[in-house]
């Protein structure tokens, strides 16, 4: 049950992220936000949810984290390239770097949360 919810949450988030990165620039020109912060937080969330969805179906370890980060980096690069033909949007290396750091920290944060959860579970098991 948790695995299915995590996978659906990831899918919905990813579709929202993909859609938002292809909104024409003239629609966003009045929005007041830092572009790099938006990229960082968007990919932080994507990476965290990807790790969560993965961990509900299969073991999560450093090789998994590295593979997910690589897949998200490739997706981020493709996403930047696909923005080029969108009116008022550009594909920027700086945006991709913000994506990469956001994804990395999302994975590290998930790993931290997972470690805490595992520690509490072990303590709970040993108390019985």
Give an overview in words.
The structure is a single chain. The chain is mainly alpha-helical and 128 residues long. The chain has one domain (2-14, 36-127). Helices cover 79% and strands 0% of the residues. It has 5 helices and no strands. The longest helix is centred in the C-terminal third of the chain and has 35 residues, at 93-127. The radius of gyration is 17 Å and the shape is elongated. The relative contact order is 0.16. The model has no long low-confidence stretch (mean pLDDT 90).
Short description:
Helices cover 79% and strands 0% of the residues. The chain has 128 residues and is an all-alpha fold.
Structural class: mainly alpha
So how many helices? 5
Number of domains: 1
The shape, in one word, is elongated
Poorly predicted regions are: none
SSE pattern, N- to C-terminal: HHHHH
Give Rg in angstroms.
17 Å
Total strands: the figure is: 0
Fraction of residues in helix: over 70%
Straight-line distance between termini: 26 Å
pLDDT average, as an integer? 90
Largest sheet: none
Percentage of residues in DSSP E strands? under 5%
Question: Could you give the topology of this structure?
Answer:
Blueprint: H1 2-20, H2 25-28, H3 35-55, H4 62-83, H5 93-127
